[in-house]
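Here is the promised in-class demo. Please do not try to memorize the tokens; focus on the logic of going from shape to residues.
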């Protein structure tokens, strides 16, 4: 009985002997194998935690190699007491862990980019007490996270070299959920994911989670860097009083989303497994071809507030041939992941924040 009741170490909705049926639709060839690495292959999703050696990574500029013995984090700008900390100073501070699913806001926005997502247990020290210790001076409104990586870019007719820079309001930065992370899934933060230190901002799209940190700066102005005000800007047509209005917004918090991950076959029985994330998930529904939406079962064996929920649904006796599989998630406030023809998606002309319903194609024999 003890065996029956013990929780499997590798909790995941699996059945012995089942095999994966690959999707017919597949991402196109990655045109940027340096910038975009280790995308999730959805058919391979077989655990709630994404192992470090299978976790995607994004770099907009170079991928720096940092010597942890000389590396320092500076906290400066509009602060009473500027701070300088080495990695041991940070590790000596209170430890906080969070399971958080990081998704790049460009995921599913481009034909070669459908695996910019992974779930890890991050560990580090809370950001808020460090900001309090530095003491933000009156007038400070913006917290800038500077990366060690840098790249050349054209800005207002100037060719400049600028470091990675993303910012948050003081209020957002002070969230008790934010940590400066030095560990990922129990291991030292890998180089690709920001060694030696990165921001982990649970509930935010990947871009907010600045890697290879070197400086946290407080300013009295909003930052309009490449990754705040020019790129990572969503352009969408909305309607106001019956008139079309174009709106540009900086990519920030994550959005409600789900996707089918894999179809599993056991004899003539099939099962679809998927994931849902980006908001507190209430339930997930699945549609096969043009059929009725059917409720999926959420896997509660491993869960966390900011991590994806895995779900599954049985597909008992499907007819042979080609089928489409679509999922849609609902959050705890009742909001539904938008359909692809919902104006919030259809009116969007940039590829960021592509949280529309994902349809996959499968051929059954
Ligand atoms: N310094 C720095 N931080 C960065 C980036 C970067 O290019 N440089 N890329 C961002 C983007 S676009 C994403 S989606 C996430 C991805 O995190 P990962 O590489 O650990 O998967 O890191 C973010 N943090
Ligand atoms: Mo991203």
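The designed amino acids, position by position:
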């Amino acid at each position: 009985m003890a065996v029956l009741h013990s929780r499997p170490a590798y909790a995941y909705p699996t059945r012995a002997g089942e095999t994966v049926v690959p999707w017919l639709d597949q991402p196109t060839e990655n045109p940027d194998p340096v910038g975009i690495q280790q995308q999730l292959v959805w058919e391979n999703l077989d655990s709630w935690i994404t192992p470090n050696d299978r976790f995607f990574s994004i770099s907009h500029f170079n991928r720096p190699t940092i010597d942890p013995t000389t590396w320092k984090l500076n906290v400066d700008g509009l602060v009473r007491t500027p701070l300088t900390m080495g990695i041991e100073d940070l590790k000596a501070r209170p430890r906080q862990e969070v399971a958080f699913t990081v998704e790049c806001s460009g995921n599913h926005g481009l034909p070669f980019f459908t695996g910019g997502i992974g779930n890890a247990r991050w560990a580090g020290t809370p950001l808020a007490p460090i900001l309090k210790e530095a003491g933000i001076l009156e007038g400070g409104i913006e917290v800038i996270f500077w990366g060690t990586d840098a790249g050349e870019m054209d800005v207002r007719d100037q060719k400049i070299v600028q470091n990675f820079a993303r910012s948050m309001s003081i209020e957002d930065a002070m969230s008790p959920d934010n940590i400066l992370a030095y560990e990922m899934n129990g291991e030292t933060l890998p180089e690709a994911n920001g060694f030696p230190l990165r921001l982990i901002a649970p509930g935010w799209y990947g871009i907010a989670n600045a890697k290879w940190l070197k400086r946290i700066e407080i300013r009295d102005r909003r930052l309009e860097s490449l990754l705040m005000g020019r790129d990572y800007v969503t352009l969408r047509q909305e309607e106001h009083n019956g008139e079309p209005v174009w709106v540009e917004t900086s990519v920030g918090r994550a959005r409600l989303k789900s996707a089918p991950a894999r179809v599993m076959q056991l004899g003539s029985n099939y099962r679809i497994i998927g994931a849902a994330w980006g908001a507190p998930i209430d339930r997930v529904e699945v549609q096969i071809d043009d059929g009725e939406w059917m409720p999926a079962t959420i896997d509660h064996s491993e869960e966390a507030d900011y991590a994806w929920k895995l779900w599954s649904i049985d597909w008992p006796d499907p007819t042979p041939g080609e089928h489409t599989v679509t999922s849609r998630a609902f959050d705890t406030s009742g909001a539904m992941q938008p359909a692809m023809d919902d104006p919030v998606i259809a009116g969007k002309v940039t590829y960021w924040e592509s949280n529309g319903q994902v349809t996959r194609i499968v051929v059954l024999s």
